[in-house]
Amino acid sequence: MILGLEFPPISHLVEWPTLFGGDVFGVNKVVLLMWLSVAIVFGLFYAGTRQPKLVPTGVQNVAESAVEFVDEQIVLQTTGPDGRGYMPFLLTLFTFIFVCNIWELIPLVQMPVTARMALPMFMAIVVWFVYIITGIRHQGFFGYFKNAAIPPGVPKAILPLVAFIELLGILITRPFALAVRLFANLLAGHLLLVTFAVITQALFTTTIIGAALPLALLIFLMGFELLVAFLQAYIFTILAAVYIDSSLHPEH
Amino acid sequence: MLHVLAQQDPGELEAGLTAVGRGIVYGGAAIGPGIGIGLVVGNAITAMARQPEAAGMVRTTMFLGIAFTEALALFGFVLAFIISG
C-alpha cells in the first residue's frame, strides 16, 4: 500500500504465465515478443534490401538509415575502418535491442523484452565471445592477455594489482556490466511507467481532475522512455564496438 | 517506547528493516554516479561550446562515459531488488 493505493508486487509486473511448453522451454509473452522482434528485424532488412533502388523509398529508407547510423556513429567512431567487418554483427545487435526495447511503449503490449535478465545476459555473453576470440585471432592467445593485463606505463610495484584488476574487468566485469546496464535501465523504465499508470488509474476513479497531473507525467515519461530505449541500444552497441576495438588495436 | 517495540511482530520488523535497507542501498548507490554523470556531461558541454566542430566526437565519448558511470547506480538498483527479508 503506497498512498492508499494497491501497488502490484514487482513479480507481477515482469513475470508472465507460461502459455505453452514445459518447465525450462516454457513460452510466455516475453518469449513471443522476442520471436516477433527477430521476425521484425529480419523482415526489415529483407524487405529493405531485396530490390534496392538508387533513390530509396519506404522500407529501404529505414533500413539504409539504420545501416548508415551504425556505420557512421558507432563503427567509424570507435574501431575505424578496420572494424567494418563487424558491422553486420553490430547492426543486428542495435536493431534487435531497439525493437526489443520499444515494446515497452507499444499500447496493449507494454513489456520490454530486455527487462528480463535472460536476453541481455545472452547477448553480453555473445559479445564476450566475439571480443575475446577477435583478440586471440589478432594478437595471439598470450599476446592478447598480456596486452590486456599490462597497460603501458604502469610502475612495477603495483603491476600485479593492475594486472589482476584488468583481467577481472575483461573476463567478468565487462559482460556483467553490459548485461546489467541494459536490463536495469529497461526494468526501471517499466516500473516507472507502471507506477504512474497505477496512480492515474487509482485517481481516475475518484477525481478526474486529480488524475490529470500523473497522466501528463505519464505521457512525458513515455517520450523519455523512447529516448532511453534508443540510447540503451546505442550504448550497448557502442560498448560492444569499443571492446572489439580494444581487441583489434592493443594499446602501445 | 520499549514496550511498544516489544509488542512488534518480529516478521513485521524484519519487513520494515528490509524496506529501509533497500532505500539506503539505492540512495547510497545513486550519490556517486549522480556526481559523476554531472561531471561528465558538464565537461562535455564545455568542450562542445569551445569547439563545436568536435561536437560529434565529444558526444560519442560522453555517452561512453555516462554508460560506465551509470552502471554503478544500476548495480545498486538491482541490488535493492535482490535484498529480501
What does this structure look like?
Chain A is mainly α and 252 residues long. Chain A has one domain. In chain A, 71% of the residues lie in helices and 0% in strands. In chain A, α2 packs across α3 (59-78), α4 (87-102) runs antiparallel to α8 (212-248) and α7 (159-206) packs antiparallel against α8 (212-248). Chain A is globular, with a radius of gyration of 22 Å. Chain B is an all-alpha fold and 85 residues long. The longest helix of chain B has 41 residues, at 10-50. Helix content of chain B is 87%, strand content 0%. Chain B has helices at residues 2-6, 10-50, 55-82. The interface between A and B is medium-sized, with 18 and 15 residues.
Report a brief summary of the structure.
The complex is a heterodimer of chains A (252) and B (85). With 252 residues, chain A is mainly alpha-helical.
Enumerate the spans of chain A where pLDDT stays under 50 for 5 or more consecutive residues: none
The SS-based structural class of chain B is mainly alpha
Instruction: Compute the number of structural domains of chain A.
Output: 1
| Beta-strand residue percentage of chain B | under 5%
Tally the helices of chain A: what do you get?
A: 8
The count of β-strands of chain A is 0
Distance N to C terminus of chain B: 24 Å
H/E element sequence of chain A = HHHHHHHH
Assess the beta-strand content of chain A as a share of residues: under 5%
- The portion of residues assigned to helices of chain B is over 70%
Largest sheet of chain B at a glance? none
Number of strands of chain B: 0
Structural class of chain A: mainly alpha
The helix tally of chain B amounts to 3
Shape of chain B: rod-shaped
Radius of gyration of chain A: 22 Å
**What's the quaternary structure here?**
heterodimer
Mean pLDDT of chain A: 89
